[in-house]
Amino acid sequence: MKEKLEDIKIKGLKKIENIKNISELEDVRKELTGKKSELSQVLKSMSSLSNEDKKSIGMFTTEIKNLFIDKLHGKEEEIISSMSVLDGPIDLTLPGHKVNEGALHPITQMKYDLNDAFLSLGFDLYSEDDISSEKYAFDNLNFAKDHPARESMDTYWIEGTEAKSGAERLCLRPHLTGGSVRYLMRHGAPARFVYPGGAYRNETTDARHERAFVQYEALIVDKDISFSSGMVMIQTILEKVFGRKINTRMREGFFPFTEPGYEIDMECLVCGGKGCKVCNHNGWIEVMPGGVIHPNVLKSAGLNPEEWTGFYINIGLDRLVMMRYGVDDVRLFHSADLRFLKQFK
Ligand SMILES: [Zn+2]
What we know:
By secondary structure, the chain is an alpha+beta fold. The protein folds into 2 domains: 2-82; 106-344, BirA Bifunctional Protein, domain 2 (2-Layer Sandwich), CATH 3.30.930. It contains 11 helices and 9 strands. It has helices at 2-18, 22-33, 38-44, 51-82, 106-120, 134-137, 178-187, 227-242, 295-300, 317-325, 338-341, and strands at 124-125, 131-133, 170-172, 191-200, 212-222, 248-253, 258-267, 284-293, 309-316. The strands form 2 sheets. It has a 7-stranded mixed beta sheet with strand order 1-4-5-9-8-7-6, with helices on both faces. A hairpin with a 4-residue loop joins strand 6 and strand 7. The site of zinc ion (ZN) has 7 residues, from loops.
């Protein structure tokens, strides 16, 4: 049996020596060290041998196998180092590798869809800085001096301006509404415009609240804007966004810059109105506060409230996107988790 093993060893080493490429190497590797190799056959046929012979033949077989593995490894390195980086001539007509393309964030997409919808209704698109002031965030908008929303619990004040007041006391805008007065001061009335952007609140996050979120506000100012024209606008926008009629309801709401103010709810599309954690188990979700613009706000913008009226809506983009895709946790949109975001491509 020893002679047979010697023979296997000599032939095997010769085979390894003659290998010319990687595919041949894999064949020889299988032939010499695989389960059906001659070495394996020898090990299987040892049952008739004495224990001592079993031991010495077994050791010799293992020694040969290790030698093969070692030589094959050396041969593999030799072949790889002498190989061209190309397998053969390049075929320039072959299709290239697919590029992993990005996509718009679903909130950005919703913003663009709303822009399209409003622009088609003759609205102007307006934007301003994320840093605002007490004057524009609160004073102009009829917030009482002691209104709780002015306090640090709701607003991020800019360090170094705390002791100041009005236009000199700076904050990250807690809502977009301040931009409405700035636009009206610059452009006068009549006006119809939207002003999407980021807003910031110093509050605890949960499934429906974020510290930084995207708002989308729209305002019409004209002579004799009625409450019903505001409602028609809301219905039209929702229909454009969702491609079908959406059930809505209005509740009385209080916002210093409106008189009267409303909370506009839409039927929760995550649960179809049955109740879920997004809609607080009541089947409706508040998507846009709104209302008739307060006379004091018009005065701040230099307009005569006897002459002009207006209607605000403030669309919660995050919530609309949650409704569009049936997503039940707003924090996912800001998680930067590609596994989540790739679903919206
Ligand atoms: Zn629901």
